[in-house]
Design a protein that fits this description.
The complex is a heterodimer of chains A (about 450) and B (about 1200).
Chain A lengths: L1 H20 L1 H4 L8 E2 L4 H8 L2 H4 L7 H5 L3 E2 L2 H5 L4 H7 L15 H20 L8 H26 L12 E4 L12 E3 H18 L12 H14 L3 H14 L20 E3 L2 E3 L1 H5 L1 E2 L1 H5 L6 H6 E3 L5 E3 L9 E3 L2 E2 H14 L3 H13 L16 H15 L6 H10 L6 E5 L2 E5 L12 H7 L7
Antiparallel strand pairs in A: 2-7, 3-4, 5-11, 6-10, 8-9, 12-13
Helix pairs in contact in A: 3-8, 3-9, 8-9, 9-10, 9-11, 10-11, 11-12, 11-16, 12-16, 16-17, 16-18, 17-18
Chain B lengths: L1 H6 L4 H26 L5 E9 L1 H12 L2 E3 L2 H5 L4 E9 H9 L4 E6 L2 E6 L17 E8 L10 E4 L5 E3 L5 E7 L5 E6 L2 E7 L5 E5 L12 E3 L4 E3 L7 E5 H4 L18 E3 L12 E3 L12 E4 L2 E2 L12 E7 L2 H4 L10 E6 L6 E14 L12 H13 L4 H4 L9 H10 L5 H12 L3 H9 L3 E13 L3 E13 L5 E16 L2 E15 L9 E2 L4 E2 L15 E3 L3 H6 L9 E3 H7 E20 L3 E20 L4 H10 E4 L4 E4 L5 E25 L2 E27 L4 E3 L6 E3 L6 E3 L5 E20 L3 E12 L11 E11 L13 E13 L9 E7 L6 E7 L8 E13 L5 E20 L10 E24 L2 E18 L27 E4 L13 E3 L2 E3 L2 H4 L10 E5 L4 E11 L2 E11 L2 E3 L5 H7 L30 H8 L5 E3 L2 E14 L10 E16 L18 E9 L1
Parallel strand pairs in B: 2-5, 6-12, 18-21
Antiparallel strand pairs in B: 1-3, 4-5, 6-9, 7-8, 7-10, 10-11, 13-14, 15-20, 16-17, 18-19, 20-21, 22-23, 22-60, 23-24, 24-25, 25-26, 26-31, 27-28, 29-30, 31-32, 32-35, 33-34, 35-36, 36-37, 36-40, 38-39, 40-41, 41-42, 42-43, 43-46, 44-45, 46-47, 47-48, 48-49, 49-54, 50-53, 51-52, 54-55, 55-58, 56-57, ...
Classes of the chains: A mainly alpha (about 450), B mainly beta (about 1200).
Chain lengths: ~450, ~1200
């Protein structure tokens, strides 16, 4: 009888304390199966494979929206819901205030360095072995690529055009190189900004595979192509040409528009890195009349890209990724051909320049016998022809803003004009406003200097 | 053996063995008694005059079957007896027999043994051993036969004592003298004494103390039962009478306006981020703010709507730190302890039933103030002329245009004449879609409720069986049915062991109803349905709603497509959401008493709630037709349509499962000696909640055959309208979450002389919350308290207030948000579109500085009652100090977090308040008039907050968002200064002390906090209720009035941006500025085009729209008539009550002059309802 009594005492004591012995283990259970602390290469890869927040709608084309490929009627401009969108159109003071983080370009673009930094920090703690080295490299290379990718778009939109005479003093963009959100943002110089972009891409090249598993993932081709674009924006035509060539060595295929029925297919063979964005301005855009008139009637790009409104104006019809509402903001081989061509011309090699141009143009022409290869009298003529075709090829590809900025540095004298309800807004070459305004909320917290208006 | 053991009882060890064996013997004996007593009648009716005892014994034997044993010598000493007893027990008759006789008796089983009484005299030396120690068990009941809980039972002149448990029972072991006397005392009962004699089982009737007249109140904390007179903490108890004054399907609804210190904020549509239910104001900002709900000792993890209100015995609200600290980290927001009805030992079978029907009026749609149809048409006409709709008209995705815009466009294209256009438009001007909603959509709702329960108990077991049925049919024809079954049993197989089991089963089914007014949107999700749209044609058939432009629909697909229009009045029948919920909660409890004062309590609870939701869209539903059409591939040469999405229904099935295991081991200790009483518990608890859910979609679903078709989810297909390629959505989702908690806890209360009580409580919790550093997992929480029954002191002479008690407590509780993490965490989503790669989003960003919130609370209270309880109540004062509260701290979003702010431990808050409860018996005769007043004052303000921005725009508004301004309430109404309309009808703010229309500066960097107007708290600082009940001969009329004072809200007005783009206009439009001079009579800005959204933002957050929220509401009126045995002697039932209850009777006074109900703002107020019911007990 006593034993029963004692047993009961022991029982209750053991129930009291049994849980504490196994308590630690018990409490280590993951609270949510879908949650993980990124500790494996697969986790890191999965972060970078969230294509909705990596490839899509990260760059919604505020550069294109500020550029001259389109115009808005006053009625359409007045009907815009967001004041931010109205301001983008007239190069206003604040272009994000009714566009909260998560839906504005600044926040979207800076989420790429953040994700990349999280991945790079996690990878530091992951030891790769012979089997996993390839995956490790791919993830690390992708993170470097995506960080450079976002920094470059940001530098083109929010800093002055690169000018090697003033790059050390011109204000660039804040370079976020770790995931600590407590760190205060500081503006780097334009030189530091571009150096970081180049360093990231050069780090990415040896890590990335030559060909990607999917064009939504970065690859060596994409890294070369992006480096080419970066050097072009810096007007370093030698390096831009070399990297365009490196990229074309790996993939130089082109899509023959004459074989298309309707829209351009998504992920077509020209696409090197797929990225898209959506702009509210595009919805209502009318194509700049000079631009639309520059297309020959046998040029397939006119009918594939644009829609005749029937009243003398043209609207947007189809994007390079096959949708009717998105900008293609990625990189494709056509860009590499035109970049290499421009660099050849810039270096005086008219023949190779025109050869590259014609390789591309032939794939853009109607298959009706009207195709005649373009010719140039000299390198300058070649350069002009290439730059003309460049503008026609890259409507709604978010390259025009970069081009206007760099070409104005070379005396192209491109002045932008908007006319609304009788009022004219002008943006003269090399104006301060070519560096778009930082979000006021960011300026307020960080104390960074705002771009002068 | 028994005797042998007895003779050597000097050895301690053997004594102990003996006790255990004795216990066994008693258990066995009582078991036999229970078994054999059944055959014997217990009652004797006997009338004798000068009768010899033998004759009396003979009669008893005949009536009861009892046997008698005596020796002739003994009986010869006896005198004849005279008495007259009816329905007496054998004991009573025997007592009469031996009265004043040199005899005594004892009853062993059904044998009565007559013995000679041994005269005891101090001079006499007894040669026999002292009588063996015995164990005494008993039960203390009041006049009504209800157990007296917490009464002290002591042996006169010794230190030995105990107190009664929740069943009124007590056990005293090893009483050594059979002439011992028990002294029973308690705050609510008259002290009385009982001789033990050789009886071991007592049923003692206690007299309720008339002086105090207080009912015994026992607070249940979910861990223990605390008698009110020993409680130091702050409790509010609502018994089922109060709960049943209102009717309704769900339990929480019945707490509204009756529970002291509990505040229910506005309905979700009009509340912002503020928490819905608050006990004593705010305790947190960003952590979960809901009170912990405990059902029968365990946190309830299921849907609270599962509980049938008729199953509830009491609801106890734990308000201060002493009361809540025992519940640990989840209790920082207060605890609501719900206790269900149970059977009682030795209770005759009782049946209770309740049945009622509630009719709920249609809502009054005309309470809402949308823009007048005529005004809207004028706006559209103006906008059309300015080309506002051009882009929509030419949009390639063919968004539908309003009928007015279509007419204007036809006119513009010359398709109709100006006169036709005017006639067609004028025909629409007089329409108001609310009339159609009122006619075709809304109806009176009918809710039916039936419940019955059966309970009872013998001395070995109790039982309760209850069942309930609810059948609701709401204003929108949505159905809700609920069935409840509950079984509750307790067994006492042996004296010191009690086993309780309970099972609660709920099955509910909900089916969607018609679409509510304002829930249908045009073109994705923002445009409202046009107010001139007619829901039905002249014959009452549903009118088609174009979701793409009619002209386009006429040509697209060349007639090969399915009808691409929406039929609002019918679609709900084809787009059905059926939710089935099953919940089973099973509890097993074991209580074992040992070593006199200890009680081991083991409890285990398992709960499983499974919810399955089927969203079936059949082929007639718009959703299915839209999906099918969108992906239809038409070969225009052959006319063959290829359906990528099969031409059949679409079903979304989802299942969610909540599985809960809770285990608790607890030792209760309760000892009373001399004037001391100690009650303590120590325990540990382990809980796990597992939540799983999964969702999938099937296309080509045929509900009759339950078959579906295979679909290619990978390939993208061109959609017919724009040609853009899309993949078909698979809607696959899985989730599996587990939360685990381990806790240890202890609580001690010491009472001296029934006057002074001190209490202490401590608890440590640990959980598996994600990423929180393990050294932070354990959180100690503690509290301490004291109470003093002043009125029991000798010096206390204030006879007009016979009950006066002081209480005070102090303690710490905490809170933690399960969504916060010290590490970066990612969430996997499955296969990414296009690539099919596994993808993951960053779900939580590393926030390593996070720690738990701390909340300290001081409570000082006074309880009082005047003579005869004419006036009784309590007043409590509390101070709450929250430190290290989570708050959002603005972050530079360059960091890439997609947010303006991150959560950090940034805020300190301080709240203070007063809870007063007064019960008054104004008239207490045949006619009774009782009043209850609950008054709550509470204010909370921010005492420390790290603000990195002072831009005014971040703070203006109606107080739906936490503002974080030091010295001001957590949720406050801030607005822009208002300088009237200018001569062009533009609203003017103030910049640099001068009127200004620079809206981008006013709503931007030009306005700091210091430039804003502060109105006051956005939540009531004073609230409560006043309830009166009148009773006359069973007729009771009660009415409850609730009030909310001391707060502000912001009236909705016209926002031109929303009006233009979303057809979301406000009736204020009619009174807008239209011509110079209007600025003198109106404050509503002129319409401008193009619109300036900053101007809208300024006006809608300006001072001119702030209103006082104060109001008084008639919550309910109940009229009931009770028929009971007290009134009618021959009435077959204990009590039958018929009742009528009218609820939500509306506002009887409000401070604002705009006719706005501040609780609802621009959402529909709860409709009036009336309930007819009958309930009873037999």
């Amino acid at each position: 009888m006593r034993t029963i009594n004692l047993n009961l005492n022991i029982l209750c004591l053991s129930i009291l304390f049994a849980c504490f012995i196994s308590c630690k283990k018990y409490l280590e259970k993951k609270p949510d199966k879908a949650l993980a602390v990124p500790t494996t290469i697969e986790d890191c890869q999965a972060i970078l494979d969230y294509n909705y927040t990596i490839n899509q709608y990260m760059n919604n084309g505020i550069g294109e929206g500020s550029a001259d490929n389109y115009y808005l009627s006053y009625a359409d401009w007045a009907a815009l819901y967001f004041q931010s969108d109205k301001n983008i159109y007239v190069w206003g003071d604040e272009i994000f205030f009714d566009n909260p983080p998560g839906s504005n370009d600044w926040s979207n673009l800076y989420s790429l360095p953040y994700r990349s930094n999280v991945v790079l920090e996690a990878l530091k703690k992951i030891q790769a072995n012979a089997q996993t080295q390839g995956s490790w490299n791919n993830v690390a290379g992708s993170a470097f690529f995506l960080r450079a990718w976002a920094f470059h778009v940001l530098a083109v939109d929010f800093a002055k055009a690169y000018d090697n005479t003033t790059a050390n003093s011109d204000l660039g963009i804040p370079l976020r190189l770790n995931s600590d959100f407590n760190q205060v943002s500081v503006r780097a110089s334009v030189q530091q900004s571009y150096s970081q972009i180049i360093a990231d891409l050069k780090a990415a090249i040896p890590l990335l595979p030559a060909n990607p598993s999917h064009v939504m993932r970065p690859s060596k081709i994409a890294a070369y192509a992006l480096l080419s674009r970066v050097y072009l924006s810096m007007r370093d035509y030698v390096k831009a040409g070399l990297y365009a060539d490196s990229s074309l060595q790996l993939n130089g295929s082109l899509l023959d528009y004459a074989t298309l029925s309707g829209t351009i297919p998504i992920f077509n063979q020209e696409v090197i890195f797929h990225a898209t964005g959506g702009s509210n301005l595009l919805y209502y855009a009318k194509v700049d009349s000079t631009l639309i008139q520059s297309y020959s009637s046998d040029d397939l790009r006119k009918s594939i890209f644009f829609l005749d409104n029937g009243n003398g104006t043209y609207g947007w019809k189809s994007s390079y990724d096959g949708t009717n509402y998105d900008l293609f903001t990625g990189i494709a081989t056509d860009e590499m051909y035109l970049t290499r061509a421009e660099c050849y011309a810039k270096q005086g090699n008219t023949t190779l320049a025109m050869q590259d141009l014609n390789i591309l143009m032939q794939k853009r022409w109607k298959n009706n016998g009207t195709w005649v290869p373009l010719t140039a009298t000299d390198a300058t003529d070649a350069l002009n022809k290439i730059r003309t075709e460049r503008r026609k090829e890259f409507a709604w590809r978010d390259l025009r803003w970069m081009d206007i900025k760099r070409l104005n540095k070379e005396g192209a004298n491109i002045t932008l004009k908007r006319i609304l309800n009788g009022q004219t807004y002008t943006l003269p070459p090399n104006d301060n406003r070519f560096a778009l305004p930082f979000p006021a909320a960011v300026i307020q917290i960080s104390g960074m200097p705002q771009n002068p208006r | 053996m028994f005797l042998k053991a007895l003779s050597v009882r000097h050895s301690w060890a053997i004594t102990k063995t003996l006790r255990v064996m004795k216990l066994t013997a008693i258990i066995l004996l009582s078991a036999c008694l229970a078994a054999s007593a059944k055959g014997l009648a217990q009652k004797v009716t006997i009338s004798v005059k000068d009768a010899p005892l033998e004759k009396v014994f003979d009669q008893i034997k005949k009536q009861t079957g009892f046997s008698f044993l005596w020796d002739e010598k003994t009986l010869k000493q006896a005198r004849p007896v005279t008495f007259d007893l009816k329905e007496a027990t054998v004991e009573e008759v025997m007592n009469a027999c031996v009265k004043n006789q040199p005899l005594t008796y004892s009853i062993i089983q059904n044998l009565v043994v007559i013995k000679e009484k041994i005269a005891t005299s101090p001079n006499e030396v007894t040669t026999t051993d002292p009588p063996p120690p015995i164990d005494v068990h008993g039960k203390v009941l009041n006049e009504k036969g209800e157990p007296v809980v917490g009464a002290s039972v002591k042996i006169k002149g010794s230190k030995n004592g105990t107190s009664t448990n929740e069943n009124g029972e007590f056990t005293l072991n090893g009483i050594s003298a059979d002439d011992a006397t028990l002294v029973i005392s308690g705050t609510n009962i008259e002290t009385f004494e009982v001789k033990v004699g050789d009886k071991t089982d007592f049923t003692l009737k206690a007299k309720t103390k008339i002086v105090s007249g207080e009912e015994v109140q026992i607070y249940s904390t979910g861990y223990q039962q605390i008698p009110k007179e020993r409680a130091t903490g702050s409790f509010v108890q609502l018994d089922n009478t109060i709960i049943n004054e209102q009717s309704g399907t769900f339990i929480l609804d019945r707490l509204k306006g009756i529970a002291n210190g509990v505040f229910f904020d506005n309905p979700s549509g009009n509340r912002g981020n503020r928490p819905a239910t608050l006990i004593r104001g705010f305790s947190t900002i960003a952590a979960p703010a809901a009170p912990l709900i405990v059902l029968d000792n365990f946190p309830y993890e299921g849907n609270l709507n599962n509980i049938n209100p008729n199953d509830i015995e009491t609801i106890t609200i734990l308000k201060d730190a002493a009361a809540t600290s025992i519940w640990g980290v989840r209790a920082g927001n207060g605890v609501i302890v719900i206790t269900t009805k149970k059977g009682r030992f030795n209770q005759p079978t009782k049946v209770e039933f309740n049945s009622n029907v509630t009719i709920i009026q249609k809502p009054d749609l005309f309470y809402l103030r949308p823009i007048a149809t005529n005004d809207l048409i004028n706006v559209e006409t103006t906008l059309f002329s300015k080309g506002f709709y051009n882009s929509q008209i030419s949009n390639s995705s063919r968004p539908t245009l309003s009928p007015v815009v279509e007419i204007l466009n036809k006119r513009k294209l010359g398709q109709i004449t100006a006169a036709d256009s005017a006639t067609q438009i004028d025909a629409l001007r007089g329409l108001d879609i609310r009339n159609d909603y009122d006619k075709y959509i809304y109806q009176n709702a009918v809710n039916q409720q039936y419940s019955v329960n059966l309970s009872g108990g013998s001395d070995k077991m109790t039982y309760l069986f209850s069942t309930g049925l609810d059948k609701n049919f709401d204003n929108l024809s949505a159905e809700y049915n609920r069935i409840n079954f509950r079984l509750n049993n307790s067994f006492r197989p042996v004296r010191n062991l009690q086993i309780s089991t309970a099972a609660y089963y709920t099955n509910s089914k909900a089916i969607n109803g018609k679409p509510a007014y304002g829930s249908t949107f045009i073109n994705s999700t923002t445009q409202r349905l046009w107010p001139y749209f007619r829901l039905a044609d002249a014959n009452g058939n549903s009118a088609p709603l174009n979701t793409y432009r009619q002209g386009y629909l006429d040509t697209v697909g060349r007639g090969k497509l399915l009808d691409w229009r929406m039929y609002l009045l019918d679609d709900w029948k084809h787009n059905t959401t059926t939710t089935n919920l099953q919940d089973l909660t099973a509890t097993l409890g074991l209580q074992y008493k040992f070593l006199n004062h200890f009680n081991l309590n083991l409890q285990y609870q398992y709960e499983r709630q499974q919810t399955t939701t089927d969203v079936l869209r059949d082929l007639q539903s718009f959703f299915a037709r839209d999906q099918i059409n969108r992906f239809s591939q038409i070969n225009y040469t052959t006319g063959v349509v290829t359906y990528i999405v099969p031409k059949a229904g679409i079903i979304d099935k989802s299942t969610s499962l909540v599985a809960y295991h809770g285990g608790r081991a607890q030792i209760n200790y309760d000892q009373t000696w001399n004037k001391h009483n100690v009650v303590a518990i120590v325990g540990s608890e382990i809980r796990e909640v597992n939540t799983q859910s999964n969702t999938f979609r099937a296309y080509g679903y045929n509900p009759d055959l339950a078959t579906a078709q295979n679909i290619d989810y990978i390939t993208t297909y061109p959609t017919i309208i724009t040609g853009a390629k899309q993949a078909i959505q698979n809607n696959l989702q899985f989730s599996d979450k587990t939360n685990r908690y381990v806790s240890i806890l202890a609580n001690v209360a010491y009472t001296f002389d029934s006057k002074y009580t001190i209490s202490g409580s401590a608890r440590k919790d640990a959980s598996n919350l994600f990423g929180v550093n393990s050294n932070n997992k354990w959180k100690p929480l503690w509290s301490t308290g004291a109470s003093w029954n002043i009125s029991d002191e000798g010096f206390y002479k204030a006879s007009f207030i016979p009950v006066l008690r002081l209480r005070t407590t102090y303690g710490y509780s905490g809170n933690v948000s399960p969504t916060l993490s010290a590490l970066t965490a990612i969430r996997y989503f499955g296969a990414a579109p296009f690539t099919n790669f596994q993808y993951a989003a960053i779900n939580q960003y590393a926030n390593p500085d996070l720690h738990w919130e701390k909340l300290g609370q001081i409570n000082i209270a006074i309880d009082f009652a005047t003579k005869k309880n004419t006036l009784s109540g309590s007043a409590e004062y509390f101070i709450k100090k929250g430190s290290d509260l989570y708050g959002s701290s603005p972050v530079d979003y360059t960091a890439g977090l997609y947010t303006y702010s991150v959560i950090k431990n940034v805020a300190d808050i301080k709240g203070k308040g007063v809870d007063i409860n007064i019960e008054s018996k104004n008239v207490d005769r045949v006619f009774k008039w009782f009043t209850t007043l609950n008054f709550n004052y509470n204010s909370s303000k921010v005492t420390n907050y790290y603000l990195t921005t002072t831009t005014g725009a971040n703070f203006v508004g109606g107080g739906g968002v936490f503002s974080g301004i030091i010295g001001k309430p957590l949720y406050a109404v801030w607005s822009y200064q208002w300088a009237g309309l200018d001569s062009s009808g533009n609203p003017q703010g103030v910049l640099n002390k001068a009127p200004s229309t620079n809206y981008s500066l006013i709503t931007g960097s030009g306005t700091t906090i210091n430039d804003l107007t502060y109105s006051g708290s956005a939540t009531p600082t004073v609230y409560g209720n006043l309830s009166n009940s009148f009773n006359w001969k069973g007729i009771t009329l009660s009415a409850n009035i609730t009030y909310k004072f001391g707060y502000y809200f912001m009236k909705q007005s016209i926002n031109y941006g929303s009006l233009f783009s979303q057809y979301n206009g406000n009736a204020d439009f009619a009174n807008r500025w239209q011509k110079p001079g209007d600025e003198k009579s109106t404050t509503i800005p002129a319409m401008i085009y193009p619109n300036n959204s900053n101007r809208d933002n300024f006006y809608n957050s300006s001072e001119i729209l702030v209103r006082k929220g104060d109001h008084i509401r008639l919550q309910f009126v109940t009229l009931s008539y009770d028929l009971s045995k007290n009134n009618f002697k021959k009435f077959p039932f204990d009590n039958i009550q018929v009742y009528v209850n009218a609820s939500n009777l509306g506002i009887i006074w409000r401070a604002n002059k705009d006719g706005i109900d501040p609780d609802y703002g621009n959402t529909l107020p709860q409709s009036k309802s009336i309930t007819f019911g009958i309930k009873g007990r037999l």
